[in-house]
Design goal:
Strand order of the largest sheet of chain A: 1-2-3
Radius of gyration of chain A: 23 Å
Helix content of chain B: 25-40%
Strand content of chain A: 5-15%
CATH class of the domain at 217-362 and 380-479 in chain B: Alpha Beta
Strand content of chain B: 15-25%
Shape of chain B: elongated
Distance between the termini of chain A: 20 Å
CATH topology of the domain at 217-362 and 380-479 in chain B: Beta-lactamase
Oligomer: heterodimer
Order of helices and strands of chain A: HHHHHEEEHEEHHHHHHHHH
Radius of gyration of chain B: 27 Å
Structural class of chain B: alpha+beta
CATH architecture of the domain at 217-362 and 380-479 in chain B: 3-Layer(aba) Sandwich
Number of helices of chain A: 15
Largest interface: A-B, 56 and 41 residues
Number of strands of chain A: 5
Largest sheet of chain B: 6 strands, mixed
Largest sheet of chain A: 3 strands, antiparallel
Helix content of chain A: 55-70%
Shape of chain A: globular
Structural class of chain A: mainly alpha
Number of helices of chain B: 17
């Protein structure tokens, strides 16, 4: 029987907050030799928020995985420290107090999700609603008056004074939809059609959903110029399709479709083609000096990481102001400059652990929908880290995405806190001991699928 | 579904693995390339972010970093910049020369020897400070050498060594520059100043003591004498050699003559030959010995080898074997014979030091920001160029030069000085280089000097004895009187 391990969780949570506070103090010491004045406010703020999250979790999901909340706290806190540090260098762009505010709202959303959603299987009944909501959110920025184009991507919606990225929430809704849809259809989708070489192809008529998702992804790519989200959604769908049907052929078909799409897009749209050029030859002077779609930003990030080296310059002692968008897309590179290889390895380990806890939840879950949803949410988190970190480090072509829990921005933070709430909810269900069978009725046996 | 979930987990693990391998590649393998990329302005900022170590000599601060606050916090300030520039060099936004360049890793604190301190600084979040470099220069001698050369308005170089250790006590080169003009964190201004200096026909950026070679003229006769005395141990200062008024050069119609066509009387002793600097005597000695003997002796003094002090020194060379006519000219420091002033100082110092050649060096010690000594100079014997007996004979001959010969201007009251003048023709009809090498006190040498005054700048009829010897006099006095 699994233990609750609530005490261990509280200790780890306190440890995570302590690390963040030390890092915070380090920024001030590195910059002007003084512990920053706001340290207690921020520390107590973060500590208080996480204590609240912990209490909600302990009350409403007592069996949940004890590691997830401390790990997320650590990454979110480190993100806050980095944004605070970048704010010192570029006060007009970065704002740590804003980010702390959105963290608070994120924790509220986390709590609300846990309190309202007592049984996540309720989501299965909303499969198609989730699908429509997801699509609607994706389309929202394209509407006239409502949508806004910032930095070349039309992924924003202006509401009052705020800008919201509906795509971040669409991501969640679509994963819920995929999970519900695939659980219902997986037996059909798993049927084999003809055999080509060593791959069993699916039947032609079952290709429909894959093609529709592909069209939506390409639509996002073309109409909103958002390569990152396009890649994120398509990859998540293919992964979930594979998990549900156990057919490798889907992965091959998905990869082929994606490569074909990317190739055609690269030929047709200069901004996509430019990403490939930059990826292949980031150091070239021509690309470096190109005003739009060049490699300047990428190279500045790489210069920062290279200058950081193995141990980093130390917090507060690097030059995040030299890296454009160091507070959002390129926060990983800015972190790499100041915390070095050591810090980045630790950070990637923390992400990997969060994903691992999520996948473990999926394996332990008792029904297919939970398995698929937990697997899908974990995968989309890993996939998002891979796309943005891989892009910033030039492992793959750069596509703009948020670094989960670190980049400045409310929408992504809220969406990711909800994602974590869903994982926590499911891990609570998975780890909760099953009801005791009544011993006397020895004749009845329960079979599990 | 657990099977595919586990495979999906492996895929996630693979993705994180790839990311980790990639950042290791970036931040460990490629880090240096990215850090030093000319487009990475961090290295430019970093130059001014840490407190760079001081450069000192004889208790005086020659270069230090002054905290100015702001993005470019520490800026370099030089005291007596022009006097020390050939040695210390400059610290400009994108480059550094001299000691500033050669000892940069100590000065900016990135040297592996400073690793432990740097790690402590990192943990305590203190900015890294560089180590201080203490030079072997003697400020008093350095200044007088600079002033003498400056006063005369001539181009040239002065090098003084401690013969027993090889420590460089003076290194002056004129004309020079003020490194303060390139110290500001302003790339455009520094580039402008540098380009102007670089294009200047007087070459103020060139350290004439070590970065270029000149015909050594008659100072080279010390080496020819060393070879001749070493070849046969029975020869001494009174051994006579042929010294015709004109030495016929085999294969040519022009003979080798003495300075201003003077006569040395047909046959002369070695001591007299050196005292009056008789060209034909040394020409005939060389013809008797052959090129290989002379060359072997020269290389024992370190000629033909590049040096690092730690500034790099171009190699001196007496030229290829071009036949007997050329050899006679090589023996008196002409033809393809090219020496750095430092090399000639090493020759004087080796004679002074019983024939032992000591490696010249500029760095006395390296001191951590907290004041602990990290490293200090270890005098290093390179070779035994001549036996103590030969050194003794050469000393007698060189004393005679200063007492009775061409080098009387270098005499010091109450101290025996040994020396040799040189006046090197640079080309037919052009003005000569003036040289003087010496050491003192002759009985227990504490300083060896080479003074070089470049062709043309010293007037058409300049001789080593008239132009160079008085400067050597002042430098020796400054070192001995300290």
């Amino acid at each position: 029987m699994t233990a609750k391990r609530r005490g261990a969780q509280l200790v780890m949570l306190a440890f995570a907050v302590a690390i963040v506070m030390v890092a915070y103090a380090n920024v001030g010491l590195g910059r002007n030799g003084q512990v920053p004045a706001g340290m207690l406010t921020y520390g107590l703020g973060l500590g208080g928020l996480m204590l609240a999250a912990y209490l909600v979790l302990a009350r409403f999901a007592p069996w949940a995985d004890p590691l997830v909340l401390p790990l997320v706290t650590l990454v979110n806190g480190l993100g806050l420290v980095m944004i605070y540090r970048i704010e010192q260098a570029t006060p007009k762009l970065a704002s740590a107090s804003n980010q702390l505010f959105w963290t608070a709202i994120g924790v509220v959303m986390f709590s609300v999700t846990l309190i309202v959603l007592r049984d996540h299987r309720a989501l299965q009944r909303m499969t198609y609603t989730a699908g429509f909501v997801g699509l609607g959110l994706l389309i929202l920025p394209l509407l006239p008056f409502l949508g806004k184009e910032i930095n070349g991507a039309r992924i924003w919606v202006g509401v009052g004074g705020f800008s919201i990225q509906p795509g971040e929430f669409a991501k969640l809704a679509l994963v819920v939809f995929f999970a519900g849809y695939l659980v219902a259809k997986r037996d059909v989708l798993a049927l084999a059609g003809r055999r080509l070489l060593f791959i069993d192809l699916p039947r032609a008529r079952d290709l429909g959903p894959v093609l529709i998702t592909w069209v939506v992804s390409v639509g996002v790519l073309v109409l909103e110029k958002d390569l990152g989200t396009s890649l994120l959604l398509f990859g998540a769908f293919i992964a979930m399709l594979y998990i549900a049907t156990q057919r490798t052929s889907w992965v091959f078909i998905g990869v082929l479709l994606f490569i074909g799409g990317a190739f055609v897009a690269g030929q047709l749209f200069s901004h996509v083609g430019a990403r490939f050029d930059v990826w292949l030859n980031p150091g070239s002077n021509v690309l470096y000096n190109r005003a739009f779609g060049g490699s300047y930003q990428l190279m500045q990030g790489l210069f920062g990481m290279g200058s950081g080296g193995i141990l980093g310059t130390g917090l507060g002692q690097g030059h995040p102001d030299l890296i454009p968008l160091s507070f959002s897309d390129f926060i990983f590179a800015a972190t790499g400059e100041e915390l070095g290889l050591t810090g980045l390895m630790a950070l990637l380990m923390v992400y990997a652990l969060i994903v691992e806890r999520g996948l473990r939840t999926a394996v332990a879950a008792r029904d297919p929908f939970s398995k698929l949803l937990a697997g899908g949410l974990s995968f989309i988190l890993a996939w998002q880290v891979f796309i943005i970190v891989g892009g910033v480090t030039n492992l793959i072509p750069l596509t703009g995405l948020v670094t989960p829990f670190m980049s400045q921005g409310g929408s992504a933070l809220l969406a990711n806190w909800i994602l974590i709430a869903l994982l926590v909810r499911m891990s609570d269900a998975a780890r909760r001991p099953p009801p005791q069978a009544i011993q006397d009725e020895g004749l009845t046996q329960v079979f599990q699928r | 579904m657990n099977g595919t979930l586990k495979r999906a987990s492996v895929a996630c693990l693979l993705m994180f693995g790839l990311l980790m391998i990639n950042i290791n590649y970036l931040q460990a393998v490629k880090a240096d390339g990215l850090r030093t990329d000319s487009r990475n302005t961090r290295s430019f900022f970093a130059r001014y972010q840490n407190e760079r170590g001081m450069i000192t000599a004889g208790g005086q601060t020659l270069a230090k970093s002054v905290d100015a606050g702001g993005t470019f916090r520490f800026q370099r300030k030089y005291t007596d910049g022009e006097v020390y520039a050939p040695v210390i060099g400059f610290f400009a936004p994108e480059s550094a020369s001299g000691i500033e360049g050669a000892e940069n890793k100590y000065l900016d604190g990135t040297h592996p020897d400073l690793f432990v301190r740097r790690t402590v600084d990192l943990i305590t979040s203190k900015p890294t400070r560089g180590a201080a470099i203490d030079l072997t220069l003697v400020p008093k001698a350095q200044k007088i050498a600079y002033q003498d050369m400056k006063k005369s308005g001539k181009r040239g170089a002065v090098v003084a060594l401690d013969p027993k250790t090889g420590a460089i006590l003076t290194m002056v080169s004129l004309p020079t520059f003020d490194p303060n003009t390139m110290a500001a964190p302003d790339k455009a201004k520094a580039a402008r100043v540098y380009n102007k200096l670089d294009k200047d026909t007087n070459k103020p950026l060139l350290n004439r003591a070590i970065e270029t070679t000149f015909a050594p003229g008659s100072t080279f006769k010390v080496i020819t004498s060393a070879a001749y005395l070493s070849e046969d141990g029975t020869r001494d200062v009174n051994t006579t050699v042929e010294a015709p008024n004109v030495l016929p050069l085999p294969g040519t119609t022009i003979g080798l003559r003495n300075y201003h066509g003077e006569s040395c009387g047909g046959r002369t002793s070695l001591i007299d030959a050196l005292t009056i600097s008789c060209n034909t005597a040394f020409g005939s000695m060389a013809l008797e010995m052959g090129y290989d003997t002379l060359n072997a002796q020269a290389s024992k003094f370190g000629i033909g080898q590049p040096m690092s002090i730690p500034l790099s020194v171009v190699k001196s060379d007496l030229g290829p074997d071009e036949g007997k006519a050329a050899l006679a000219q090589t023996a008196i420091g002409q033809r393809s014979n090219q020496m750095t002033p430092l090399q000639m100082a090493v020759v004087a110092a080796s004679v002074a030091n019983q024939g032992k050649v000591m490696k010249p060096y500029l760095v006395n010690k390296i001191v951590s920001p907290e004041g602990d000594e990290i490293d200090s100079a270890r005098p290093q014997e390179v070779d035994q160029a001549i036996t103590p007996a030969v050194a003794d004979k050469l000393r007698q001959m060189m004393i005679s030069v200063v007492q009775n010969g061409t080098g009387t201007a270098a005499q010091l009251p109450g101290i025996t000085v040994a020396g040799k003048t040189g006046t090197a023709e640079t080309s037919q009809g052009a003005a000569s280089h003036a040289w003087f090498i010496s050491f003192a006190p002759a009985e227990d040498p504490k300083v060896a000097v080479a003074v070089f005054v470049e062709s043309g700048s010293a007037g058409n009829d300049a001789t080593g004895g008239a132009v160079a010897a008085p400067i050597a006099h002042d430098v020796m006095q400054a070192v001995l009187g300290q």
